[in-house]
Amino acid sequence: MSTYYEAEDLKKFGEIGRHAKPLADEFFRYYGLVTGQDGALTRREKALIALAIAHSEKCAYCIDAYSTACLETGANPEQMAEAVHVAAVMRAGVTLAHAIQMNNHLDKLVL
Amino acid sequence: MSGAADPSPRYDFEALLAARCLALPPRSVGTLQLNLTKLCNQACRHCHVDASPARRERMSRETIDDCLEVLARYPEIRTLDLTGGAPELHPDFEYLVVAAAALGRQLMVRHNLTVQLDPHPLTGASLAHLPTFFARHRVEVVSSLPYHQAYFTDSQRGAGVFDKSLEALRRLNAQGYGQPGSGLVLNLVYNPVGPYLPAAQASLEADYRRELRERHGLQFNRLFTITNMPIHRFRLHLEKSGQYAAYMDKLLAAFNPAAAEGVMCRDLLSVDWNGAVYDCDFNQQLGLRAEMPLHIRELDLAAALRRRIRFGDHCLGCTAGAGSSCGGATT
Description:
Chain A is mainly alpha-helical. Chain A has helices at about 20-35, 45-55, 60-70, 75-95, 100-110.
């Protein structure tokens, strides 16, 4: 294998149960319940959340899968791009929020 | 596999039906769909007809009269569905509409909107009168609008098509199309701008209704979602981009027996510009002629209802997910 991420591997996701099938079955049942139907959130809203998390978690498989899922639930590129921006500002905000920790520590250190 | 476009047994539709114990015999011939011409003012990237301004095939007046004679002979055929290419570019389009209206048939035209605004590719003539003409003869208008934004629409149908489509919709609305109580029906068609399945029809219809009304002041009746067929121009795109197998696998994985029950070929016949008869417009474009007389003038309706519909791998496009037909989702 030349790289760690191969697009073809996405379709092998179902094989994660090879050595622990009951656990994988439970996961996929839960996965289907959460993402596969409208609930308090629509499937489109869930797909946009998943797309944002796919970027935040830097999962190439998930970005492919949920870019398609967003289109198949009627989302458009503007909505998808905004979802990615939500992920981006959350990561930036989380980073910057830790500056409080830095400041607190500086307060202790600096005379 | 009935001369299907792909010999791969993986996508053998008839074997799939047999494995699911599904039989799909004809139910009626409620609709006669005529493909009047392959000439079109557009050359859309997904077009299963490979229609374009360069095409010249068109139905003769004699064959049009044969179709009218069939309509007169069989009142069970309630709907005449006119498609192409852009059917309005046929020189006898208005002759046919007037004559079919006189027979009391429901008339539908697959109207690409921009043909109202573009000059005729061959004659340069304006077709700006079409909304008035449609309204006068109570023609139901079915128009492709791949999305309620320009990005997807222009990607699929060409630069500037979205803005022209909005202007054409304004002109149809001005005639009463899509307006409550007018009885003038304007339905829109969504199809994906790539190898993926359409979103749920009701959800997308609500989006279109809100966005077109709030942003553009436009109205319509219903939105039909249609799946892209893996044939001709779209198939070539899939093959060139290395996505053909993945798309076919997606269609196969999404096979829905309930959608299969509702496939449109069970209730219509399709006629090409030569008068040859097919089970649907997709079979027509693939050259899969119906198992019945060679020409529409020889139509025997009782025999047509006993025919075996010809299926191929492309039929997976009509049976995936919520299903797909000229009238949108089938479930």
